[in-house]
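pasting for ref
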Amino acid sequence: MDQFEGAGAVRPGFELPVDRLTDWLKSVLPDLVTPIRLSQFKGGQSNPTYRIDAGDKAYVLRRKPSGAILKGAHAVEREFRVISGLAKAGFPVARAIGLCEDDSVIGSTFYVMELVEGRIFWNPTLPDLTPEQRSQHFDALNATIAALHAINPADIGLEDYGRPGNFFARQIERWSKQYLADDLAGRDPNMDRLIEWLPANMPADDGASSIIHGDYRADNLIFAPDGPTVRAVLDWELSTLGHPMGDFTYHMMMYRLPPHMIGGFAGADLAALGIPSEADYLKAYCERTGRAIPTEAELRFYFAFNMFRFAAIFHGIKGRLLRGSAASEHAQTMADNFPELAALAWAQTGATA
């Protein structure tokens, strides 16, 4: 599947004012060919994402959703800032073109970036590849997130992109507050237990801090169409400065999430597929970054924390669905999966209810 698949007609309720958008685009793209043509990507669970065709060129627009949103959510302006900075370090991101914070243009803050052509694997087992090819692509996934964590934020003007230290405590507080604040989406007993368990079981924060993606998985990467080269990492909404191992173990949830959830392949025959084992994948990252392999107790915390955080995101999607502002066609599926994900998060702790 390539970048062009997954974009179709703009869905009802997500239309954009083409004339005002065109005028703004001309201010950042003097050579823009008009008229522009808009379509909407089927992804973009949080921020509605559009394809803009203009002559023989194509761009991507990501915007905040319309309607009421929770404080701190949907920060597309942060996405724009981080991809602009990472490009300076030669990290694979789409070229940032322009940010608009004037709500009078389309009704919310948005930014535009180049459309990177290539291959997106929506299925985390990377079907249609041979086992050897699949192994190479997983190694590229591993190497790319390790390279991200090796970038010095100060070198690219992102030293103030987040607060260093106490990452897990701050994240637990943030996602707990967002979960508790969304009364419409309701409460879940496993989430409530995790809000108590996680702060009491945090590993010692070793002070490690790097730029973290926050939602790193195969379907947020564009590969070259004919090989394992990563052309661009997408969807930086949740990026910040944080603990690199927390970010990497979020990525590693693919090993423990069921196939019907985003990014999961638990139960797959990894050896037959050419996918490295969870232990080998973790070891490869630690060797690349010079980090110690986490203890079992640390891994229990990391996976419980990340599944809790992921479940809080699903909970937020459920709330947006009930408010009528969910951007993805698959919002209902994610809302329905929320209780199962919360239960799986609690299971990672090894504790009894």
